[in-house]
Amino acid sequence: MAEFAIALSGGIGAGKTALAEKLAEALDADRVSFGREVRRYAKENNENPDDRSILQQLGQALVLTECKQFVRRVLDQQSQPRKDRLIIDGVRHIEVLIHLKEEVGKRPLYLVHVATPSSTREQRIMERDQVERRLAARYDNDITEAQVTRILPQYASLTVNGELPIMLQVAQVVQRVKEWSAKSGQHPVAA
């Protein structure tokens, strides 16, 4: 299989991280995470890395004030030596996608959007974060989530159903990666 980078987008609770972990295993790929970098940044700045509201504010500020550096720090999470394949968890902004395309080098970049109904995502957030429904809904309506459902899906090379069992999602992405790799004129993200 050829070298590539797959960026995952989707709303909070869509299942991006679970899919990223399983894809990294199945494709023998490095996995990096925007969420991991925002939590690291929160700790470094004496903010609560477990407070989603704070993480959303910090993530938005990083995109607005130092997007290119933010993207580079996320990509620096890769193992050394770097693998030819990369899974990027947590794309929420078109600006980030554009910088990713510039930074992944010669690897083609594919955006996979995880589409999960808001009711399912809300339930997952409530269970995972131990919060009430109104707080889960507030997270989902934050400005950081605005592009996730309206803009990013238009740039997706593939959309997967986040309600499917995780191994079916993985199989769908792996099959598509094989198809992309087999094509000489691969069709990466057009951003």
CATH class type: Alpha Beta
Globular, elongated, flat, extended or rod-shaped: what is the shape?
Answer: globular
> What name does CATH use for the topology?
Rossmann fold
Largest sheet data: 5 strands, parallel
> How far from one another are the termini?
24 Å
Overall number of structural domains: 1
Average pLDDT number: 91
For CATH, the homologous superfamily is named as: P-loop containing nucleotide triphosphate hydrolases
Proportion of β residues?
5-15%
**Estimated helix fraction:** 40-55%
- Low-confidence parts: none
Alpha-carbon Rg, integer = 16 Å
According to DSSP, the number of beta strands is: 5
Q: What's the architecture in CATH terms?
A: 3-Layer(aba) Sandwich
SS-derived structural category: alpha/beta
H/I helix tally: 8
Order of helices and strands, N to C?
EHEHHEHEHHHEH
The main sheet orders its strands as 2-3-1-4-5
Topology at a glance:
Elements: E1 4-9, H1 16-26, E2 30-33, H2 34-44, H3 52-75, E3 85-91, H4 94-103, E4 109-115, H5 118-129, H6 133-140, H7 146-150, E5 158-161, H8 166-182
Parallel strand pairs: 1-3, 1-4, 2-3, 4-5
Helix pairs in contact: 1-8, 2-3, 3-4, 5-6
What does this structure look like?
It is built from 8 helices and 5 strands, in the order βαβααβαβαααβα. The chain has a 5-stranded parallel beta sheet with strand order 2-3-1-4-5, sandwiched between helices. With 191 residues, the protein is of the alpha/beta class. It has helices at residues 16-26, 34-44, 52-75, 94-103, 118-129, 133-140, 146-150, 166-182, and strands spanning 4-9, 30-33, 85-91, 109-115, 158-161. It has a single domain, classed as P-loop containing nucleotide triphosphate hydrolases (Rossmann fold), CATH 3.40.50.300.
